[in-house]
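CORE FACILITY INTAKE
Project code: CF-77B
Contact: R.S. (postdoc)
Sample description: multi-component assembly, four entities in total
Requested service: structural model of the whole complex
Turnaround: standard
Below are the sequence entries exactly as provided by the requester. Do not edit them.
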Amino acid sequence: MNFDFSDDQKLLRENVRSFLAKEAPLAVCRQVLETATAYATSLWQAVATQGWLGTAIPENYGGAGFGRLELAVIAEELGRVLAPIPFSSSVYLASEALLVAGTDEQKRRYLPPLSRGEWIGTVAHFEGPGDPGNRPVKTVVRSGKLTGVKMPVTDGDVADFALVTAKSGRDLGLAIVDLHAREVQRERLDSIDPSRSLASLRFERVPIEWLGGRPCGSDTVQHIFNRAAVLYAFEQLGGAQRAFEITREYTLNRYAFGRPIASFQALKHRLADWYVELELTRSNCYYGAWALSNEAPELAVAACGARVAATNTFELASKEMIQMHGGMGFTWEHDAHLFYRRARYLAAVLGPAPVWRERLITCLERREQAS
Amino acid sequence: MNFDFSDDQKLLRENVRSFLAKEAPLAVCRQVLETATAYATSLWQAVATQGWLGTAIPENYGGAGFGRLELAVIAEELGRVLAPIPFSSSVYLASEALLVAGTDEQKRRYLPPLSRGEWIGTVAHFEGPGDPGNRPVKTVVRSGKLTGVKMPVTDGDVADFALVTAKSGRDLGLAIVDLHAREVQRERLDSIDPSRSLASLRFERVPIEWLGGRPCGSDTVQHIFNRAAVLYAFEQLGGAQRAFEITREYTLNRYAFGRPIASFQALKHRLADWYVELELTRSNCYYGAWALSNEAPELAVAACGARVAATNTFELASKEMIQMHGGMGFTWEHDAHLFYRRARYLAAVLGPAPVWRERLITCLERREQAS
Amino acid sequence: MDFNDTPEEAAFRAEARAWLEANAEPLAPGEQPAGLEGRFDPDMVHKAQEWQRKKADAGWACITWPKEYGGRGATPIQAVIWSQEEARFKTPPNIFAIGQGMLGPTIMVHGTEEQKRRYLPPMLRGDEIWCQLFSEPAAGSDLAGLRTTAVRDGDDWIINGQKIWTTGAQYSKWGMIVTRTDPNAEKHRGITYFIVDMQSPGIEIRPIKQMNGMSSFNEVFFTDVRVPDRNRIGDVNDGWRCALTTLMNERHAIGGGAGGPEFRDLLRLARTVMWNGKPALQDAGVRQRLAEFYVRAKGLQYTSYRVQTALSRGQTPGPESSIGKLVGAPLRQNMAAFALDLEGAAASLLDLRAPEGALWQLAYLGSPGLRLAGGTDEILRNIIAERVLGLPPEIRVDKGVPFKDVPTGPRP
Amino acid sequence: MDFNDTPEEAAFRAEARAWLEANAEPLAPGEQPAGLEGRFDPDMVHKAQEWQRKKADAGWACITWPKEYGGRGATPIQAVIWSQEEARFKTPPNIFAIGQGMLGPTIMVHGTEEQKRRYLPPMLRGDEIWCQLFSEPAAGSDLAGLRTTAVRDGDDWIINGQKIWTTGAQYSKWGMIVTRTDPNAEKHRGITYFIVDMQSPGIEIRPIKQMNGMSSFNEVFFTDVRVPDRNRIGDVNDGWRCALTTLMNERHAIGGGAGGPEFRDLLRLARTVMWNGKPALQDAGVRQRLAEFYVRAKGLQYTSYRVQTALSRGQTPGPESSIGKLVGAPLRQNMAAFALDLEGAAASLLDLRAPEGALWQLAYLGSPGLRLAGGTDEILRNIIAERVLGLPPEIRVDKGVPFKDVPTGPRP
């Protein structure tokens, strides 16, 4: 049984953590949140310099040639510091999609600048409110040109290109779109977490090429989301874990009625329950990481499980963080709302938990039918 | 605003409570549970003598001529003592159905012996596991004779007659069936709450007459269930309230670590939450009682609300009762399991909570469409 | 059972409504009354005072107060009826509630006759607005842990310290402040209660920005602020008893729902947001959750009917009156979280293009405050457990110890 | 990351499996191993002893124990592998677990060399079965509140009192008992630990009927039971330290799932029970609930993989090993409640005609016990909070007080 990160990966975690402790205290997140900036450019630069953007990109495409386990380690650490950068869009979504379904030429064109942080990529899928689950995508490609509106698009305001879900006839595919093209109108939208940005993208007959040369099909699109879900889950786990640590510390140092509030059994028990949720979530995330790094057939189920657990737990964590901090936790000055906002942003970014729960059962059914 | 029982009704409650304190200590319930008896015949007799069976039956049909508010008061008290008698079947279901949909002749025939407790009636609806919501009833009436199997039937082993949901062509109705007829095979089934009994009923071309002279239609059948649901909810509320009172008392008197366990904040807060659930449930039940006693168009929504709240709260109460009693609460000797079993019996008897939740939303939709 | 007024109540309601119709404009259907949230706005204060004076002139201000102070000695149920009716009209936000609801009643119980005559009538008329100076950064749920000091200096007291969560400090004439006057006494025994002129030198007011961007509260700093001894309420070192009176009235003053989306808004969202090409309302899982919310929200509403019934019958409402905020605040937060799930990816928009103009996003960001202000969930559970259910109080390590020796942090 | 054995582990697993295949019959697919529930059955005890002796002869009993007492000094991960493999075969219920898992290790730490040599080998071989005499009616979660007394009488001690929740008392040769030997000392300081011969005069054993009708436990009454002083473990009045060793081992001994329905059974039920003419599994609300259960059940399973990984790497497992029962027991109860909802009206049947032969009814009736036995949910939360998270202990009013003066009930 070898169901844990290796010593090398744990060492990587330590390095990443101490690097981020210096480069990305929560004040960095707050600064992006409080100013009209889209993301922390200097942190982005620092992260690029560390080579983290290319962690899982093979060396021949300009990356570091590590695997998804290393990427998961970094994702958790970025989650802990609420890193206000488009890492998830550019790495978990765009780079990973290119690796999964891009042609060799596409990989050679996009991955090196992605891994150096010179280009930012994202995926544009949602078309307004509601569950995008099985709803037909309205964005279409006709004669090699894409038309439609995507909203909200994570990091759509700063990305250089987007992989846009679109129909060509009956086929679903991912169209690679240069967001600097004239035929693209983009508009930044106010985000529930202003440290992470959102945009609407309007495409009016913009020329595209298909990721992989032709529409990759809805199974591959879903596969790309599943893979990203695992990495997002590690970010969520990291955020939830950090919220817990800050709160635990606070309850030990905040005194009321002559004693630390952590000594009140109602809080003690809720902290214990919270810890339990973190451990269960961590285990589901590890399973997702195992499936992701091994290209296992269990990936779909594992991704749904990690996503559901991590979304639930980050929501719980961000609520409890505020509540256990009392009135101070509700102030702008306190960091608790950074977690509360980020939890909601990450819950929405791949579609909400009910959709992933539904998908989980669908995957279980398929698995049983197959066996 | 006059949203509470009247002084007279409160006086009735006091009288019923002190009568039952004498006649129906929990030992009476336990005795039925531990022996192979179907119900407590002497308690049944005592209740009949008090005239409670005919509470809401008009005087010209042999009843006391009170209303449903008085019946709700009695239901809550019977719930408190976990009365092991077929009161609910014979009164909330059979008598009330006759009052709602019976012909005058039928009322004259059935209601007087029902109100004297000489006859026991019930309703037979379910046909095995699952949700009976919109599933077609398989029991049929052809040429005035009924064929089918109903299982489980509450008090079906002791009832003298049953109102059986059955189809005649496309129409749904309630067929009045003499359970002593040759063409009826009945078998007692083991109940999760052996203080309340269950049976399967097999009908093989048994002669019937329709309640109301012809199939009353599925709306009326549902209306009859909605009415019963309010009264059942009061029983559930009474059980939950009593479980709370016993448990509160226990936590004050049980000492651990040199102090009453009620002083441990985790228990204190859970007792507070439990109390809150009781009050919210009580309010939903009162609204149901108001709608029932006023034949208000809000009855359907109100009944669903009361049913859902009371089912949830009795389940919570019976679980917490055991948990807060510690190991003793899990013994046969302790009364906690009587509540745990009864909660489950009552949750099942009109169909489970998810079905009532679904129905609640359907009713809200209908109401909005109507307005 | 019914939901009707008694004949007396109906007559009173008609009288109230007639006056309101003659003097105010009814709300449009679906329109919300103006809330208190937001920054200081002199114009709003002016309008609120105008309305209050109008009511006072017609005998509709603080109607439960005795006639001698400007009230009409109305019954509690009449007060409920009056606020139901007033809530149907466009009126300025009620910036007098803290004074009239909590501090006035405290003065009536603990003030001298002179104090009552001096302070109550202008409070009732809205000429003088009041704020409450209770909580401190290190004394929230544990209010009696307050450290703001008042030291005697001749006929005056000198106040130093910091208060927090003070609504309306900017536009208040008077503040009611609890101070520590004997740090050698046991915690609850060295506290004294004063009325402080908010224009006194040495007072600095800073608005607190909340996590939802609004500023409903202030910090108030006291540096050598002088208060004459005649502004003292109750005896020296007996202020805790007065503060308890104020807090008992707070439960009634806060309680209510206070704006924001409700179940019907959630139902509307479920009807309009599409899931899999159909309204989310058609999803069986959504329906299950909606039903739970409905039952809870209605349970709360019907509970308030029970409270009103008790008032209508001239009885003291039972303990069910204490559950409102404990149920309502988490319910709001949970409904908002579910609404955001319904909205899908668009839930991340805090933007007018979000469904319903980001109604639920704002509710999600605002609801944590409801669970904290006016007693945290945890304090409310303790109150229910101890006062309603008679369960034992918390073990107190700060009893029988001079206040200055009570631990306030981990030992270094 | 993978789920594979190391080469050494694989070799060990192969060796274990080979011996088991030669000496036992594999379970059929879906067949559950025999549980411990149920009444005393001499035949079952006999068979269990036979199997244990067979294992001991081949060196497969208590494999982590030192060789000198009959073990093979195996590593913890080897113990895990052995139990995984053994669980795939038809074997009698393990009636030795309390002795071998909790009491043996205690003797190894606190016993004299003579005691170790006398008691450990027959315990390992199953020749002598052991039970644990800890809890009392008034000392459950608060175990140190025990009141059974032992009074010195020459070379013997005389024991009087009552113990409860004792598994296997009927067929045990020895019991390990904690007693109060100094009621004037502070609670934890007047306790002494003994080995008692269960056939001694003055011992009466009564099975306890549980709410689910089964009898897994006993009450044991002691009336002037004599125990020689050489049966004492540890020093006089130092028994609490020994008891803690036993309790630390209990966490490991209990932990597991211990039979009963699981998620896959729930999924099967949802597939077979019809709702509105379709399998309940097609209902979107049912699917939401199922997904939550799945994620939780799997979280627990994967957590056990993490524990095994630590063992496999020769590390001490982290605190995640303590969450098993706290998560698993309520999960079982909640899954059962949901299963009963799925069954509709038929949920009230405790009858073979209920779906799945009343599998879920029995689980619903049995699950409350899982939340209580071997540490209640509340005690487990305290343990996690204090030992894992380092939060402050409960305030103790029974510290520094002679045991006899600790309050045991309300003052009259």
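Facility notes:
- The radius of gyration of chain D is 23 Å.
- The first helix of chain D runs from residue 7 to 23.
Invoice: internal transfer
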